[in-house]
Design brief:
By secondary structure, the protein is mainly α. It has ten helices and no strands. It has helices spanning 11-29, 38-45, 48-70, 76-96, 102-127, 137-154, 158-167, 172-197, 202-228, 231-251. The radius of gyration is 17 Å and the shape is globular. The chain starts with 10 loop residues before the first helix and ends with a helix.
Length: 255
């Protein structure tokens, strides 16, 4: 496990931590897809498991602001539908984390996200948006499970949730509100498991506390950005960010 004893990070590590903290805030209240970018950035400068332990408390803290601001916009039937398979995925991730390297998982996540993006593009382009949203229980179960699995292993469930919420054709405020409540529940449930795994320690939490002001800056920026983005551009930006993240994750297979 990474030694946080003195918090003697170099300037590049502190810069990336602060930048990722701002991105986490923006992702929770404005542009969801951007949050996945924090995963590879932190993993570049910190050991993979330690990087996930640094990121989770920042996500959980930002979730509080997102829920407070968008609490009335949540679609609870969607959340309730996704939670049971997500909890199963988290349980599976807790077992797998002891036997799999995060670097092995990243390309798999990328392929899953890329496949869903292609499917979503085909559905909208071939039918000009008139195709019915998938309603079979297996659609929610499959995405919910993978969301739980990937969030437990690498805090990388954002793109999966993005694809599901886009498929539900929510307006941008319901999109943010539903995702905020969903990840608030999952991220706070994950914290004890991360402590048990040794990925979160008192000293790593001290680092996260120093990032709180930067997260708040990102939260405010996200709210301002969301107010300025039309629905059409909002959907496009989210999909492009998810695509970029998927490609980045897939390319790690060649490293």
């Amino acid at each position: 496990m990474f030694d946080f004893t003195a918090l003697d990070f170099d300037s590049s590590q502190w810069f990336v931590l602060c930048f990722c903290a701002v991105m986490v805030g923006v992702a929770k209240t404005g542009v969801p897809g951007i949050g996945i970018l924090a995963v590879p950035l932190l993993a570049l400068l910190f050991p993979a498991k330690a990087s996930t332990g640094l990121l989770l408390p920042m996500l959980a803290f930002a979730d509080l602001f997102a829920v407070a601001y968008y609490r009335r916009h949540a679609r609870w039937p969607i959340i309730i539908r996704l939670l049971p398979p997500a909890l199963v995925g988290i349980a599976a991730g807790s077992l797998l984390i002891r036997h799999i390297d995060n670097n092995q998982l990243k390309p798999l996540i990328g392929f899953i996200v890329l496949s869903m993006l292609v499917l979503n593009y085909w559905r909208t382009s071939r039918t000009k948006g008139s195709l019915h949203v998938p309603t079979h229980w297996s659609f929610a179960v499959t995405l919910g499970f993978f969301a739980g699995l990937t969030t437990q292993l690498a805090n990388a469930a954002g793109p999966i949730m993005v694809i599901y919420l886009l498929a539900m054709r929510l307006d941008k405020h319901s999109f943010i509100g539903t995702g905020a409540w969903y990840f608030l529940i999952l991220n706070w449930l994950k914290i004890p498991l991360f402590v048990w795994d040794g990925r979160i320690t008192l000293l790593s939490l001290k680092t996260d506390l120093l990032m709180c002001p930067f997260i708040i800056v990102g939260v405010v920026l996200g709210i301002l950005i969301l107010k300025k983005i039309p629905q059409k551009w909002f959907n496009l930006i989210v999909q492009l960010l998810a695509l970029a993240a998927a490609i980045k994750l897939i390319l790690t297979i060649f490293n």
